[in-house]
């Protein structure tokens, strides 16, 4: 869904550029930003349920609960019962903030880096395996660094089933006050290392799939990247 949204939006912001040419870097950044925002509508409740499942043992101890949550459906039902339908979208605002700007940077940096590593590849669609792996990995790592503090705050907001934090700013201020600024970067190294591998593999698989679907890098491949053929 992210790549499809990005392909459409990047072209929407670049209507004056011929379909045979790749979208501009501005179109890439804006398309990525829009795709990230759209993705948040689905990702936010999914991550909320995942976080509640991961923290269920601690939550049960705090609330003196003896029954365990059996799975995502059970978690979803309990959230709706205890917090209402709005509870499912707890943390949506900060998820949009995190994903919109990080995806804008993510797609822009990927396109920029692969063009620097292999000039002309955005036009002819002939980027090498090494180029996509490095560009995708670097884009994923940098985008996570840029949004990591937001992700920490988002996780804390979604983990609470009560009203410990009144909002994004309150969560940020209290976290820094109680645990200092370092709390916003806990686990960054592991996340960045994973992001480089995962996103490098994602873009490599994406570009490889496009080549097989659109005749191994002819002009149709360039059109596919720009959103015309998708």
TrEMBL record:
Keywords for the protein's UniProt record, in alphabetical order: Membrane, Mitochondrion, Repeat, Transmembrane, Transmembrane helix, Transport
InterPro entries the UniProt entry points to: MCP (IPR002067), MCP_dom_sf (IPR023395), MCP_transmembrane (IPR018108), Mitochondrial_Carrier (IPR050567)
Membrane topology: Multi-pass membrane protein
GO cellular component: a single term: mitochondrial membrane
One Pfam assignment: Mito_carr
Gene Ontology molecular functions: transmembrane transporter activity
Protein localization: Mitochondrion membrane
Solcar repeats: 23-116, 127-212
Segments traversing the membrane: 183-206
Entry superkingdom: Eukaryota
Primary subcellular site in the record, as a coarse category: mitochondrion
Family indicated by similarity: Belongs to the mitochondrial carrier (TC 2.A.29) family.
Protein name, UniProt field: Mitochondrial arginine transporter BAC2-like
Organism of origin: Nicotiana tabacum (Common tobacco)
Lineage of source species: Eukaryota, Viridiplantae, Streptophyta, Embryophyta, Tracheophyta
């Amino acid at each position: 869904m992210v790549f499809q949204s990005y392909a459409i939006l990047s072209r929407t912001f670049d209507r004056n550029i011929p379909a045979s040419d790749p979208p501009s870097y501005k179109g890439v950044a804006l398309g990525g930003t829009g795709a990230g925002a759209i993705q948040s509508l689905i990702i936010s409740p999914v991550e909320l349920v995942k976080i509640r499942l991961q923290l269920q043992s601690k939550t049960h101890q705090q609330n003196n609960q003896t029954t365990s949550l059996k799975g995502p459906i059970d978690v979803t039902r309990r959230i709706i019962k205890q917090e209402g339908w709005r509870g499912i979208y707890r943390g949506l605002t900060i998820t949009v903030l995190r994903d919109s700007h990080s995806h804008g940077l993510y797609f822009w940096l990927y396109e920029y880096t692969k063009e620097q590593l292999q000039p002309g590849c955005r036009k002819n669609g002939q980027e090498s395996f090494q180029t996509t792996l490095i560009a995708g990995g670097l884009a994923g790592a940098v985008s996570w660094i840029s949004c990591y503090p937001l992700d920490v705050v988002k996780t804390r907001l979604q983990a609470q089933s009560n009203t410990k934090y009144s909002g994004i700013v309150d969560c940020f201020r209290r976290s820094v006050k109680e645990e200092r600024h370092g709390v916003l970067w806990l686990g960054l190294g592991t996340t960045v290392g994973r992001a480089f591998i995962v996103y490098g593999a994602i873009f490599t698989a994406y570009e490889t799939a496009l080549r097989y679907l659109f005749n191994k890098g002819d002009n149709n491949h360039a059109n596919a990247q720009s959103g015309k053929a998708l």
